[in-house]
From TrEMBL:
Residue intervals of the FAD dependent oxidoreductase domain: 2-392
Listed PANTHER family: GLYCINE OXIDASE, SARCOSINE DEHYDROGENASE-RELATED
UniProt source species: Hydrogenophaga taeniospiralis CCUG 15921
Protein name as it appears in the record: D-amino-acid dehydrogenase
SUPFAM superfamilies with a match to the protein in the record: FAD-linked reductases, C-terminal domain (SSF54373), FAD/NAD(P)-binding domain (SSF51905)
Chain segments annotated as coiled-coil in the UniProt record: none
Amino acid sequence: MVVLGAGMVGIACALSLRQRGMQVTVIDPLGPGAATSHGNAGVLARSSLMPFNHPRLWSQLPGLLRGRSPGFRYDPLAMLGQWRWGLSFLSHAREQVFRETTTALDALIRHSGELHRRWMDAAGIAHRRRDEGWLFLYRSEAGFEAGAFGRETLARFGVATATLAPHELHDLEPHLRPIFRKALWVKDASSVDSPGEVVRAYARWLLALGGRLETTAATHLQRNDGGWSVGTADGRSSRADQVVVALGPWSRDFLRQQFGLKLPMGFERGYHRHFTPTPGATLNRPVYDTAAGYVLAPMAQGLRLTSGVELNAQHAPPRPAQLDAAERAAREALPLGERTTEPDWLGSRPTLPDSRPMVGACPGQPGVWLALGHQHIGFSTGPGTGELLSQLMLGEPTTLDPIPFRPQRFLRA
């Protein structure tokens, strides 16, 4: 079997298949954890079950379209070019779809969290995990009230949270400046100090189990005696009975080029920047400033500042204004140190119209399987995706309901 893509999802698929005795080769031009999986805030949280296109989006839409929200920016020309995806995305901001999506994502996130814990222990990286939860910070009472729908949703799914007064927030994070009126402590959450290193550790474990990794790009797939011939950029070709496409934001172009499939995928672009820790600027867990739209997380590289969402074309030039605004706001909350020499990072999070990933057989292409479209929570949902796909591929009973993730909801043979 060949897995295309060595991000969190691709490595998870390969690990799950190898644990079931399958011979697996992973192909990726950048190597494990070097692209989209490198740039997130490292949070493994059940609160991530909340999709961006929830029923309250309609009331927020006029303000968002003005393009001044710190947590959301968009390029109008790029959105005109993706108007079909945009309309479909908005059409899924309905109560029934929202309930289906949150139910499916909660199950996937919970199971992935259990697998992450077991896998980190097996891969020898349990020390990278923190189990102190994470914090939603509110600069005003009005901001806290505006988040009521999200809190109600988390309560409906039994996510453990606690509302904190300023003095209680200070007890948890004493170095935050006293600019926040309230906080929500999401206790059902863990975080890691380097998402990319976690993926690379899983890849090393895969190799120790007998899996293979090739650092090159897959250029074409061709039917070959009931299987597939996988051609790569280095001029080689290998045969595989089955192929998994887990290329994240590159999946859309790959499926169109190989099979003429039109995958309705948009891109939630995001940025991050690192700062050298200084005395009086430490955090014990990631924090999300809801008013300013950034997450600040303690990482091995220092403090990582991640921006909100930018809807844009995948390969559009960087637009650092959103990250610069996030830095200004973060400096109000914490005495950040100097920027590190590491350059700013930009990644594209692949999002399908219903904010659920696509996991299952590729319509009309026997032996091709899809594991893609994880928007900005691929790190939280990768292991569960890998196990679900492996079970489907091998005809095993599935731990999770596969119906909400079936590719046929958007793709036809």
